[in-house]
């Protein structure tokens, strides 16, 4: 039975936005009183919340699929659809959120931090919102967009001030039970601890947390034992406490050899960029089980050599509690020093500069892609892709509205600069997208380039006649009528035809 999970993949589906409504208001003596279609509601977001009351990702292991509520459809009489309810997912403090490619999205290290992991879709506008002085009664509405869908990886890294590291059965679980109110499982066989345990230690006015990391063995950084799965829980600790077993009966083991192996595995573990390597952090050594006479003798024998290596050494017993008070004060001193240093570094941290989007940035880009059937011009950008998704292509008026929106942001001009000609294949969006046969609009500067060099078809092909042209046309028409009457008179005089009485 799974009781602890520190890494899980979650599949998220945010809510879809509701469609806008097409409706015309009808009243007595006013059968067509104007559009009154309401907007669709927005889809619900999926939000991750760092909650101190949550300690494991077990719930996501059991239910990895999470779907937020969809937005309601718009209705007549200006009634908007309901917004989808936000789905709030509580995760432990110290959870790292990664995308499908393994890139870190956010590190939830502070209680109450919220992160929108899946954004809900936008609701479509109803025809009442689309009405304008030029389009007084729209016969279409915008569709709602799909909410974000995909997978994220949640990885829990225990946040503690001090990490207890050492071989299996070195007494780490007994030590955390003696220092705090934590009650981990304690037994006389290796790998008793199968999950990290947290304990809160109170020493005078100082309070700090201690993490009992499952036992490490040689090759842990390469995947042996349980170390590779739980070394990540050491990353966030400000100090390390090496718990060395002075009463082990295993051949070839002694405190000095155990310390060398553990330090080698800690050095081989890669920490994230910007974090201090594990072996460069403050380290103390606890020689455990001195309540056993042979262990006390061994501790006294190896202590001078360990101190010569630069370590502060404490001889302790989790059974008799010998040396635990001195060890607790030493750990509290290291933690307070690290906290003061962290505050100073936070004050010197450079400010985050938010730069607005460039003025000449149209919010889209065009890529020319070669293929078997010629060049395809792909339009990528948040606005064009969203507008295409909101368009009902079964409605000609809605398609015309889409063409107006695309023309206003300068897509026609950009296509001309990219080398597109009339009839070229244009795809909006990634992948299959939506395919169009591009026809430049008359209001765009693209038409200038479609004609002969040096000509402007907007002027040359103007259908409006001048007064001089109308006068000349009138005179030509009158002259033609006079000539027709004269021709008839000549034929009558020649006897070609006569009037019947």
UniProtKB/TrEMBL annotation:
<dbReference type="InterPro" id="IPR045086">
    <property type="entry name" value="OBG_GTPase"/>
</dbReference>
<keyword id="KW-0342">GTP-binding</keyword>
<dbReference type="InterPro" id="IPR014100">
    <property type="entry name" value="GTP-bd_Obg/CgtA"/>
</dbReference>
<dbReference type="InterPro" id="IPR031167">
    <property type="entry name" value="G_OBG"/>
</dbReference>
<dbReference type="GO" id="GO:0005525">
    <property type="term" value="F:GTP binding"/>
</dbReference>
<dbReference type="GO" id="GO:0042254">
    <property type="term" value="P:ribosome biogenesis"/>
</dbReference>
<keyword id="KW-0460">Magnesium</keyword>
<dbReference type="Pfam" id="PF09269">
    <property type="entry name" value="DUF1967"/>
</dbReference>
<feature type="region of interest" description="Disordered">
    <location>
        <begin position="448"/>
        <end position="501"/>
    </location>
</feature>
<feature type="domain" description="OCT">
    <location>
        <begin position="356"/>
        <end position="440"/>
    </location>
</feature>
<comment type="subunit">
    <text>Monomer.</text>
</comment>
<feature type="binding site">
    <location>
        <begin position="317"/>
        <end position="319"/>
    </location>
    <ligand>
        <name>GTP</name>
    </ligand>
</feature>
<dbReference type="InterPro" id="IPR006074">
    <property type="entry name" value="GTP1-OBG_CS"/>
</dbReference>
<dbReference type="InterPro" id="IPR006073">
    <property type="entry name" value="GTP-bd"/>
</dbReference>
<protein>
    <recommendedName>
        <fullName>GTPase Obg</fullName>
        <ecNumber>3.6.5.-</ecNumber>
    </recommendedName>
</protein>
<dbReference type="Pfam" id="PF01018">
    <property type="entry name" value="GTP1_OBG"/>
</dbReference>
<keyword id="KW-0479">Metal-binding</keyword>
<comment type="similarity">
    <text>Belongs to the TRAFAC class OBG-HflX-like GTPase superfamily. OBG GTPase family.</text>
</comment>
<dbReference type="GO" id="GO:0000287">
    <property type="term" value="F:magnesium ion binding"/>
</dbReference>
<feature type="compositionally biased region" description="Basic and acidic residues">
    <location>
        <begin position="469"/>
        <end position="501"/>
    </location>
</feature>
<feature type="binding site">
    <location>
        <begin position="288"/>
        <end position="291"/>
    </location>
    <ligand>
        <name>GTP</name>
    </ligand>
</feature>
<feature type="domain" description="OBG-type G">
    <location>
        <begin position="160"/>
        <end position="336"/>
    </location>
</feature>
<feature type="binding site">
    <location>
        <begin position="191"/>
        <end position="195"/>
    </location>
    <ligand>
        <name>GTP</name>
    </ligand>
</feature>
<dbReference type="GO" id="GO:0005737">
    <property type="term" value="C:cytoplasm"/>
</dbReference>
<keyword id="KW-0963">Cytoplasm</keyword>
<dbReference type="InterPro" id="IPR015349">
    <property type="entry name" value="OCT_dom"/>
</dbReference>
<keyword id="KW-0378">Hydrolase</keyword>
<feature type="binding site">
    <location>
        <position position="193"/>
    </location>
    <ligand>
        <name>Mg(2+)</name>
    </ligand>
</feature>
<dbReference type="GO" id="GO:0003924">
    <property type="term" value="F:GTPase activity"/>
</dbReference>
<feature type="domain" description="Obg">
    <location>
        <begin position="2"/>
        <end position="159"/>
    </location>
</feature>
<keyword id="KW-0547">Nucleotide-binding</keyword>
<dbReference type="InterPro" id="IPR006169">
    <property type="entry name" value="GTP1_OBG_dom"/>
</dbReference>
<feature type="binding site">
    <location>
        <position position="173"/>
    </location>
    <ligand>
        <name>Mg(2+)</name>
    </ligand>
</feature>
<feature type="binding site">
    <location>
        <begin position="212"/>
        <end position="215"/>
    </location>
    <ligand>
        <name>GTP</name>
    </ligand>
</feature>
<dbReference type="Pfam" id="PF01926">
    <property type="entry name" value="MMR_HSR1"/>
</dbReference>
<comment type="function">
    <text>An essential GTPase which binds GTP, GDP and possibly (p)ppGpp with moderate affinity, with high nucleotide exchange rates and a fairly low GTP hydrolysis rate. Plays a role in control of the cell cycle, stress response, ribosome biogenesis and in those bacteria that undergo differentiation, in morphogenesis control.</text>
</comment>
<feature type="binding site">
    <location>
        <begin position="166"/>
        <end position="173"/>
    </location>
    <ligand>
        <name>GTP</name>
    </ligand>
</feature>
């Amino acid at each position: 039975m799974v009781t602890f999970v520190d890494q899980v993949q979650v599949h998220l589906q945010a809510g879809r936005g509701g469609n806008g409504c097409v409706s015309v208001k009808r009243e007595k003596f006013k059968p067509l009183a104007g559009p009154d279609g309401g907007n669709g509601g927005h889809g619900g977001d999926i939000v991750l919340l760092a909650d101190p009351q949550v300690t494991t990702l077990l719930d996501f292991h059991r239910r990895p699929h999470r779907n937020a509520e969809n937005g309601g459809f718009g209705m007549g009489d200006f009634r908007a659809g309901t917004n989808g309810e936000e789905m709030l997912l509580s995760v432990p403090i110290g959870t790292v959120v990664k995308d499908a490619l393994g890139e870190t999205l956010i590190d939830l290290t502070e209680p109450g931090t919220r992160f929108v992991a899946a954004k809900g879709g936008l609701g479509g506008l109803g025809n009442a919102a689309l009405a304008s002085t030029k389009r007084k009664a729209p016969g279409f509405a915008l569709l709602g967009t799909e909410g974000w869908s995909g997978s994220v990886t949640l990885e829990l890294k225990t946040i503690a001030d001090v990490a207890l590291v050492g071989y299996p059965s070195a007494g780490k679980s007994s030590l955390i039970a003696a220092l705090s109110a934590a009650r981990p499982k304690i037994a006389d066989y290796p790998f008793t601890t199968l999950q990290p345990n947290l304990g809160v230690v109170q020493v005078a006015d100082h309070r700090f947390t201690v993490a009992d990391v499952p036992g490490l063995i040689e090759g842990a950084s390469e995947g042996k034992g349980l170390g590779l799965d739980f070394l990540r829980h050491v990353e966030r600790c400000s100090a390390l406490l090496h718990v060395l077993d002075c009463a082990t009966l295993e051949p070839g083991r002694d405190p000095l050899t155990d310390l060398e192996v553990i330090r080698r595995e800690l050095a081989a573990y890669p920490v994230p960029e910007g974090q201090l390597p594990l072996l460069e952090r403050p380290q103390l050594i606890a020689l455990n089980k001195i309540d056993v006479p042979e262990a006390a003798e061994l501790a006294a024998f190896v202590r001078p050599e360990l101190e010569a290596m630069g370590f502060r050494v404490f001889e302790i017993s989790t059974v008799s509690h010998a040396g635990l008070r001195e060890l607790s004060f030493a750990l509290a001193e290291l933690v307070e020093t690290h906290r003061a240093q962290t505050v100073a570094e936070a004050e010197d941290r450079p400010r985050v500069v938010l730069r607005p989007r460039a003025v000449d940035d149209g919010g889209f880009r065009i890529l020319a892609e070669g293929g078997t059937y010629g060049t395809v011009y792909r339009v990528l950008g948040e606005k064009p892709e969203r507008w295409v998704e909101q368009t009902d292509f079964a409605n000609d008026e809605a398609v015309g509205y889409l063409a107006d929106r695309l023309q206003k942001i300068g897509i026609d001009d950009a296509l001309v600069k990219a080398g597109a000609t009339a009839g070229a294949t244009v795809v909006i969006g990634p992948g299959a997208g939506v395919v169009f046969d591009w026809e430049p609009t008359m209001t765009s500067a693209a038409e200038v380039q479609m004609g002969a060099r040096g000509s402007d078809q907007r002027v040359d092909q103007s259908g409006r006649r001048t007064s001089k042209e109308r006068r000349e046309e009138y005179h030509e028409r009158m002259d033609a009528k006079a000539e027709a009457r004269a021709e008839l008179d000549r034929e009558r005089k020649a006897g070609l035809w006569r009037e019947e009485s």
